[in-house]
Design a protein that fits this description.
By secondary structure, this protein is an alpha+beta fold. It folds into two domains: 94 residues, Macroglobulin (MG2) domain (Immunoglobulin-like), CATH 2.60.40; 190 residues, C8orf32 fold, CATH 3.10.620. It is 23% helix and 30% strand. It has nine helices and 18 strands. Strands 3, 5, 6, 7, 9 and 10 form a six-stranded mixed beta sheet that branches. The chain has a four-stranded antiparallel beta sheet with strand order 1-2-4-8, with no helix packed on it. The protein has a four-stranded antiparallel beta sheet with strand order 15-14-13-18. A hairpin with a 2-residue loop joins strand 5 and strand 6.
């Protein structure tokens, strides 16, 4: 499950540095030749998270969330939509990565890089360039013949090794946690955001562009303590006849504004020029809602299903800029 960040006011100021309270943010350069952007901050208020909106022609192309773990943080970001002028806006999230997030400062950035980076770069949540991620994916994919085999092996590793964090889910504390790839890898547990972030990091480290999706999922998986009678299997087989290669279902504008509707994260991986869906959270195991315990039961039900079948349980709200 995931709680969306709803921003009510997106004001823009073209300045070198502005302050929100006692906190300050600024870019280290006003232009880039490789789509990489670095910003720094001076944090004095005890701020927990910073949300950054990256916009090109008033369209949001990225929205990374950075946990604050020092008084002088560094923020590394990538401009994904090729050359042009971008707006980069910083928002201070005083209660963790949830509302309220207040506008702090905004800047212009010119990108001279001619390449469009479609979710192939590291980010604050998807640290695909870190040695822990790179070393792990090399061990997972070593000797495999093609991208499909590599992607399937990454899926298998995650669903066999990352447990669902039932404590944070049932207590509600997951909404204030940072579910980035490294945190998920080190703790070996996560909710859906962490599964999706780690999956994206491992795929990108293997050279496979991967999106993190925010959407709505029908809650039919977390219902039973018996892996042989989990109702997702019943639902799954009952809709096999409806399979066809259609576009992913997309939420309406009203639904996307409803933070209770967009409640889940999964991934899309670019394979042979086609974005293919996978949900490692739902494939990892099941939760007994009576005991609130997770049990590993790795399956491949949500590994590259037909879009029409996937749409029966998953509706896309947006592609996150992670």
């Amino acid at each position: 499950m995931i709680k969306t960040l709803v921003l009510l006011s997106l004001l823009f100021f073209n300045a070198s540095a502005l302050a929100w309270g006692t906190d300050q943010f600024h870019l280290t350069s006003s232009s880039t030749s490789d789509s990489h952007v670095r910003a720094t901050g001076q944090i004095m208020s005890g701020l927990r998270h910073v949300l950054v909106l990256i916009k090109k022609e008033n369209v949001i192309t990225g929205q990374p969330v950075f946990p604050i773990d020092s008084s002088s943080p560094t923020f590394d970001m990538w401009l994904q939509d090729g050359p042009g002028t971008y707006k980069i806006e910083f928002y201070a999230c005083v209660n963790g990565p949830t509302l309220p997030c207040d506008f702090a400062s905004g800047f212009s950035m010119v990108n001279f890089d001619q390449k469009i980076h479609d979710h192939d770069q590291p980010s604050a949540q998807v640290q695909s360039d870190r040695p822990e991620i790179v070393d792990l994916v090399q061990s997972i994919t070593r000797g495999l013949p093609n991208d499909l085999a590599k992607s399937s092996a990454i899926h298998a590793w995650i669903t066999n090794n990352i447990a669902y964090d039932t404590v944070s889910y049932f207590t509600g504390s997951y909404v204030n946690n940072s579910w980035d790839a490294l945190t998920t890898l080190s703790g070996k547990k996560a909710v859906c955001q962490g599964y999706a972030a780690l999956n994206a990091a491992l795929h990108r480290a293997a050279g496979l562009p991967t999106r993190v999706i925010l959407g709505h999922a029908t809650p039919i998986y977390v219902v039973d303590s018996n892996p042989d009678t989990v109702s997702v299997d019943i639902n799954w087989h009952s809709i096999q006849r409806m399979a066809s290669d259609q576009e992913f279902a997309t939420a309406t504008a009203d639904q996307m504004r409803d933070s209770n509707y967009c409640n889940h994260s999964w991934n899309e991986v670019l394979l042979d020029g086609v974005w293919r869906a996978m949900d490692t959270t739902w494939d990892a195991g099941y939760v007994d809602t009576q005991t609130q315990r997770f049990t590993f039961h790795p399956i491949t039900t949500y590994l590259f299903p037909s879009p029409r079948i996937f749409n029966q349980t998953h509706v896309k709200c947006k592609v996150l800029g992670n």
